[in-house]
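User: Okay, second chain of the day. Same drill as before: sequence in, structure tokens out.
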Amino acid sequence: MNIAVVGTGYVGLVSGTCFSELGANVCCIDVDKEKVSKLKAGEIPIYEEGLQEMFENNTKAGRLTFTTDLRDCLDDVEIVFIAVGTPPNEDGSADVSHVLDVARTFGANIKRYTLLVTKSTVPIGTAGKVKDVIMEELEKRGEEIPFDVASNPEFLMEGSATRDFMKPERVVIGTDSERAKALLTSLYRPMLLNKFRVFFMDIPSAEMTKYVANSMLATRISFMNEVAALCEKTGADINHVRQGVGSDSRIGDKFLYAGCGYGGSCFPKDVRALTRTADENGLKMKVIEAVSEVNEAQKGIVYEKLKAALGGSVKGKTIAVWGLSFKPGTDDIREAPSCTVIRLLVENGAKVRATDPIAMDNFRKVCGKGVKLCNTLLETVEDADAVALITEWKQYRMVPWEEVRRKMKGNVIVDGRNVYDPDEIMTYGFFYYGIGRG
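Assistant: Same drill. Structure tokens below.
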């Protein structure tokens, strides 16, 4: 099957590469000429485990190609996926202008039946706007060419995106066309031979599913962070509470970890967009609004704990920060808690020495002003008054605490992800501060 994927960001590049791994001929399109040139040269702009090898294998095999213009491959493809960005507007709504631009090019140039599928996260009702734009372009041409529009939201977790794509828990497809349904079934069947976990539904429901899924997961995180604050006041341990609650099969143990807040490109944006959609329809989603408010406050919790542990001020203090990406397994620092913590530290006179296995280049471009970036954990703790763990990378779990203690000037550890054992940490002479640990 021949397909096109418009947009080579996280979703587009992973999707295009994985489709080619399954045997499809995939043409990826991006208007950024420099990015396309680098992709053609074998350079990928994101880190994702296993992606580089898959990318190289399929570009060499000729199944994965790149161009800057959809028109270059539109005549040869059966399906076009839209995977362009939908950044938030100032009011929190999603900007779908890039999606509609793709629809416009599609409508102005198709010559035979082609299926256009939105994989970008878009507000409910976007598919209708996409259809209208295509029809307008066809009317301008005086043509009556058949086409369909479908919704196929992505559910990829950064850090495990290739695995999530190749072995999905489910595939959600919104369509009102049997022809589109048959085409997408033939595309997805190879990866779901053992169990065909595709849910077909109407298009608005598919668009809504993506927002609700991410908002539900974000709600669990913010809820547990509020419970963690109560645990600190009452002497309970949030880790024990999590185990007790998560063992209930009706609840489960996923996304129940207290910490210093969520970040990334999806949860913050999608929670705000769902709230905005409700506003536009005359509804108030009080729970979802609170989720976002709690999370923004939680991003500063590590700074507040550092300040309290250091006598009420961080001025003149040296703080070692471990982890910059918003989660392990990715170099993405969009809305990362590390940016909030480090900004507060620098603004209040602290010296910051930070490290991350793969996200330092991205951090340097966006939030790196006034920060000393170090290659190792031990380099960050030279003469440090305190250590703050922000991102729970596996590399940071087995720490040479004796050596850390010798190199540090102070003895404060703020564990923003509850990774460490407080009793063990304190045997080395540290004061330990976790999130919700009594």
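The chain has a mean pLDDT of 94.

User: Thanks, on to the next one.
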